[in-house]
Design brief:
The complex is a heterodimer. Chain A has 13 helices and no strands. By secondary structure, chain A is mainly α. Chain A has one domain (2-268). In chain A, helix 6 (105-134) crosses helix 7 (144-171) and helix 7 (144-171) packs antiparallel against helix 11 (212-225). Chain B is an all-alpha fold. Chain B has one domain (10-276). Chain B is built from 12 helices and no strands. In chain B, helix 3 runs antiparallel to helix 6, helix 4 runs antiparallel to helix 8 (185-197) and helix 7 runs parallel beside helix 12. Classes of the chains: A mainly alpha, B mainly alpha. At the A-B interface, helix 1, helix 2, helix 3, helix 4 and helix 8 of A face helix 2 and helix 8 of B.
C-alpha cells in the first residue's frame, strides 16, 4: 500500500535523475564540449570589459560585465538546453519515448534543468574566475549569503521559464531556431546584462515584467557591488519576493502549457511531426 | 563559348546550394517576420553598446569613438552569419536534416556546397548591416562620409573581407565535421572570441601585448579598419593607424590569401578524417 502510494513520486524522481544523468555524464565523454561551451564564450565576455576600458569607465563597471557574463551562461542554457530541447528531441525521434514513459513530463523537464545547471555552471564559474583573477573585479562579499539566495532563486525562476519555453517551442517548427536566436541579444539588452538597467529608462519596466534575469541581476549587483554603483531599480527584499513569485508562477504556467501543448499537438497530429 | 559553358557548369552547384540555403532560411515565415528575426540581434547589440556608452560618457553620441564602435558592430553581422553559417550548415545537414552524407556522395563536393549555402547568409548579413548602419545614420544621427567613392571602397573592402571570413569559416566548418552536435555552441563561442580579437568594439591596442599578434593575424581586423577608413572614421586604433591606406590594403590582401590557403587545407584534412572515421552521418544528442 505504502509502496504504491509513493511509487509515482519515486518513478518521477528516477526519471528526473535519468534525464539529468545523460547531461552530466555525457559531457565528460566529449572533451570538445569544454572548449566550445566554456572557454570560448567566456573569452567573448572580455570584449565588453574592454569596451568599458576603451571608454575610460571606472573599473567597477567591469563587475557588471562579469556578473552579466555569469548569468548570460544560464540564460543560454535555458534557451538552448531547455527551451529548444523538446523540439530537438522531436527531430531526433526521442519525444515519442518521453510521451510513452510512465512519468510526468515535468519530471523529464526537471531532470533536463538539473543536468543543464550542472553543465552550465562550469561556464559560469569560468566567467567568475576570469573576472576575479584576471580582471580583478571588486566584489563585496559582506552580503554573500543573501546574494547566493538571490542567485538560486533567479536560477529557479529562469529554468521554470525554460520549462514554459520548452512547451512553447514544441508547438513551432523551424521557426524555433530563429526565435531562440532572437531571444539572445535582445534579452541581454532588455535585462541590462552589461549596464545598470536604469539606463533603459521607461523600457526597464518591460524587462522586469517578463524575464526574471533583470530582477535577479539587479539584486545581486546591489548586494555585491553596493547601491551607489548598481543604481538599483527596487529594494533587494522586493526583488526577492518577485523572484519567489515568478518561480511559482512560471512552474504553474509550465504545467498548464505542457498539458495544453501536448493535447493540441495530439489533436492536430503535429506532436511528433518532424521538419514542419 | 566553351569557357563560359564550363564556368556556368562550375557555378551550378553554388547556385543550387544557395537557393537551398535561402529556402531553409526563409520559407518558414513571411518576409516581415523574417526581417525582424534578422534585425533583432545586431540592433540589440548596437543598443547594448549605446547604453554602455551613455552610462559612462552620457550626452550625445557624436564622439568618433562611438561611431567606430557602432560601425564595427554593424559590420560584424557578416562574421556572425557568414563564418558561423558555414559551420552551422554542417551541423544542420548532418544532424537535423541528415543530408550531409548524400551531399558528400555527389560530385559537387562539400566545399562548393557550403560556399553556396553561405551565399544566403551573405545576403542576410548585407541586409542586416545596411539596416543597422541606416538606423545609426537616421536615428542616432551618426556621422559617416557617405559618398560614391567611400561606398565603392566599402564594397571593395567587403569583397576581400568576405573571402577572409569564409577562409576562417572553412576551418570552423572542418572542425564541425569531426565534433559532436553540442559543439554547435562552438559557433557562438568563436564568433564571441573574434568579437574580442578583431577590433570590433574596441581597438586591438587594448589587448594584452601577447594577444595582439592574434588580432593582427586575423583578416577581419584589417577589414574593419579598412571599412572604417572608407567611411571617414580614422584613428580608432593607434596600432593600425601606423599603416598608410596602401600598406593596409596590401597587408589585408596578403593575410586573406594566407588564410584562404590554410582554411582550404584544414578543411580537406578534417573532411578526410570525418570520412575515414565515419562521422559524416553521425548523430549526437544528449
Amino acid at each position: 500500500m505504502t509502496s504504491s502510494r509513493f511509487e509515482p513520486v519515486v518513478t518521477n524522481l528516477r526519471a528526473a535523475w535519468a534525464r539529468a544523468y545523460v547531461r552530466i555524464f555525457a559531457a565528460s565523454r566529449e572533451p570538445s564540449w569544454i572548449l566550445s561551451e566554456t572557454l570560448l564564450p567566456v573569452i567573448g565576455m572580455c570584449a565588453y570589459v574592454f569596451v568599458y576600458r576603451a571608454l575610460g569607465a571606472p573599473r567597477a563597471y567591469e563587475a557588471f560585465v562579469v556578473l552579466g557574463g555569469v548569468m548570460m551562461a544560464y540564460w543560454l542554457g535555458v534557451l538552448w538546453s531547455m527551451g529548444t530541447q523538446f523540439y530537438w528531441e522531436k527531430q531526433d525521434g526521442n519525444l515519442e519515448f518521453y510521451l510513452m514513459a510512465p512519468c510526468s513530463r515535468m519530471a523529464i523537464l526537471s531532470g533536463m534543468a538539473i543536468g543543464g545547471v550542472v553543465m552550465t555552471s562550469l561556464r559560469a564559474l569560468s566567467a567568475l574566475a576570469l573576472g576575479l583573477f584576471v580582471f580583478r573585479v571588486p566584489f563585496d562579499l559582506t552580503h554573500g549569503w543573501t546574494a547566493l539566495l538571490v542567485f538560486v532563486l533567479t536560477l529557479g525562476s529562469l529554468y521554470a521559464l525554460g520549462m514554459c519555453l520548452a512547451s512553447l517551442f514544441l508547438m513551432y517548427g523551424r521557426e524555433v531556431w530563429h526565435l531562440a536566436h532572437a531571444l539572445e541579444e535582445p534579452v541581454y539588452l532588455a535585462n541590462g546584462l552589461y549596464f545598470p538597467i536604469r539606463a533603459l529608462g521607461p523600457w526597464m519596466a518591460a524587462a522586469i515584467a517578463t524575464v526574471p534575469l533583470a530582477v535577479g541581476l539587479d539584486a545581486m549587483r546591489q548586494l555585491l557591488l553596493g547601491g551607489a554603483l548598481s543604481k538599483p531599480i527596487l529594494p533587494v527584499a522586493t526583488e526577492l519576493w518577485i523572484l519567489v513569485g515568478s518561480l511559482f508562477f512560471y512552474l504553474a504556467l509550465a504545467v498548464v502549457m505542457l498539458r495544453w501543448t501536448e493535447a493540441r499537438g495530439k489533436r492536430l497530429g503535429t506532436l511528433i511531426l518532424r521538419h514542419q | 563559348m566553351a569557357v563560359s559553358s564550363s564556368l556556368r557548369e562550375r557555378l551550378r552547384p553554388l547556385r543550387a546550394s544557395a537557393w537551398l540555403g535561402f529556402q531553409i532560411e526563409s520559407n518558414w515565415s513571411d518576409p516581415m517576420v523574417f526581417a525582424v528575426y534578422v534585425l533583432a540581434r545586431p540592433l540589440a547589440t548596437s543598443l547594448i553598446l549605446l547604453a554602455m556608452y551613455k552610462v559612462v560618457i552620457g550626452g550625445s553620441v557624436s564622439d568618433p569613438r562611438f561611431s567606430s564602435i557602432y560601425l564595427g558592430n554593424a559590420l560584424y553581422a557578416f562574421v556572425v552569419l557568414l563564418l558561423v553559417g558555414l559551420s552551422w550548415a554542417v551541423f544542420e545537414d548532418r544532424e537535423q536534416y541528415k543530408m550531409l552524407k548524400y551531399v558528400a556522395a555527389t560530385p559537387v563536393g562539400l566545399v562548393a556546397y557550403l560556399l553556396g549555402r553561405s551565399l544566403t547568409k551573405f545576403m542576410l548579413a548585407t541586409l542586416s548591416a545596411v539596416l543597422v548602419i541606416g538606423f545609426g545614420l537616421l536615428v542616432l544621427k551618426l556621422r559617416y562620409a557617405v559618398t560614391g567613392l567611400s561606398l565603392g571602397m566599402l564594397v571593395a573592402a567587403l569583397a576581400v573581407g568576405a573571402v577572409g571570413i569564409i577562409a576562417v569559416g572553412l576551418v570552423l566548418a572542418g572542425l564541425s565535421l569531426v565534433f559532436a552536435r553540442q559543439s554547435m555552441m562552438m559557433n557562438e563561442g568563436v564568433s564571441a572570441v573574434l568579437y574580442l580579437f578583431c577590433g570590433v568594439v574596441f581597438p586591438p591596442d587594448l589587448l594584452p601585448a601577447m594577444l595582439r599578434p592574434v588580432a593582427l593575424a586575423l583578416p577581419m581586423t584589417y577589414w574593419l579598419e579598412a571599412s572604417r577608413r572608407a567611411l571617414g572614421v580614422r584613428g580608432f586604433s593607434a596600432l593600425l593607424a601606423r599603416l598608410s591606406d596602401g600598406q593596409l590594403a596590401l597587408v589585408f590582401v596578403g593575410v586573406v590569401a594566407v588564410w584562404l590557403l590554410f582554411g582550404r587545407w584544414v578543411f580537406s584534412r578534417l573532411e578526410r578524417r570525418a570520412r575515414g572515421e565515419g562521422l559524416l552521418d553521425i548523430t549526437t544528442a544528449w
